[in-house]
Every structure is written in C-alpha cells, then in structure tokens.
Amino acid sequence: MRLRETIMQEALLLENQVCFPIYALSRQIIQYYRPMLDALDITYPQYLVMMVLWEHDTQTVNQLGALLKLDSGTLTPLLKRLELKGLIIRKRSKADERVVNISLTPSGRAMEEMACSIPHQMLESMGLSLEEMQQLKQLAEKILDK
C-alpha cells in the first residue's frame, strides 16, 4: 500500500506535470508580445484576430472562432473592442441576418505593415533558432489536433 501511495503522490507533484511548463510558457510568450502589441494598442487575442483578417480579408464570426479556437462568447466582446478602435467593421449578412461578417477598416489594414516585424522580434526575444521554434510549433499542433 505504501508504494501505491508514493506513486500517487509522485503523480501529483508540480515538477512532474507536463501541463504546468506549457501553461507557464504560454504566459511567458504573451509577456514577450506585450510591448510590441502595446505599441499597436491591441491585446494578444486581438492580434490573433487581426492576423486572420490580414490573411483572409473578410471572415464570419464563426469562421474566426473556428480558426482561433475561440467561442462566440469570447470572440464577440473582443470584436466589439476592435470595432471601437476603428480597426474592423462588423456587418450582418444580407443573405442571412444571423451571420456577422468581419472585415478590416483602412486603419486595420494599415496596421499590418506596423506588425510585420513582430514574428522576427518574437524569435529573437525567445532565444530559439528557427528550427527549434518550428519543432515547438509542430509539437503544440500535434497535441491540439488530437
């Protein structure tokens, strides 16, 4: 019985958890982004939305949610704040009123040029090689795809 208790206690040690360093890393990476995103006056989740729109121009709320793995309860207030900043436009579809299309304003499109150096700055601030960063990304995607 003593061995079983020891094994159970070992399983609950913080140092033995896979999820904790991933959680801490996620928070640290967002901290690296903070000064760059503060200069653009956007948050990290807002930056993610902007990246999708820079790539795809117009997306529905559902499409954004699927790409960013965010539910509409999280996404809607985020989009409202981006709209108040004058970076996006939310417009109901004429074909289906339940569908809300999200598109960039000229200011939102212009922000893309200001943001284009962020990925390189992130690579430098994390102190990883491009290969190491790609390996980390591949492992994270493998877990997320399950």
Q: How would you characterize this protein structure?
A:
This protein is mostly helical. It has a domain at 43-110: Winged helix-like DNA-binding domain superfamily/Winged helix DNA-binding domain (Arc Repressor Mutant, subunit A, Orthogonal Bundle), CATH 1.10.10. Helix content is 68%, strand content 8%. The chain is built from eight helices and three strands. The chain has helices spanning 2-11, 19-40, 44-56, 61-68, 72-84, 106-115, 118-126, 130-144, and strands at residues 59-60, 88-92, 100-104. It has a three-stranded antiparallel beta sheet with strand order 1-3-2. The longest helix is centred in the first third of the chain and has 22 residues, at 19-40. The chain is globular. The chain starts with a helix and ends with a helix. 10% of the residues are buried. The mean pLDDT is 92.
Features:
three-stranded antiparallel beta sheet, Arc Repressor Mutant, subunit A, 3 strands, mainly alpha, 146 residues
What topology does this entry show?
Layout: H1 2-11, H2 19-40, H3 44-56, E1 59-60, H4 61-68, H5 72-84, E2 88-92, E3 100-104, H6 106-115, H7 118-126, H8 130-144
Antiparallel strand pairs: 1-3, 2-3
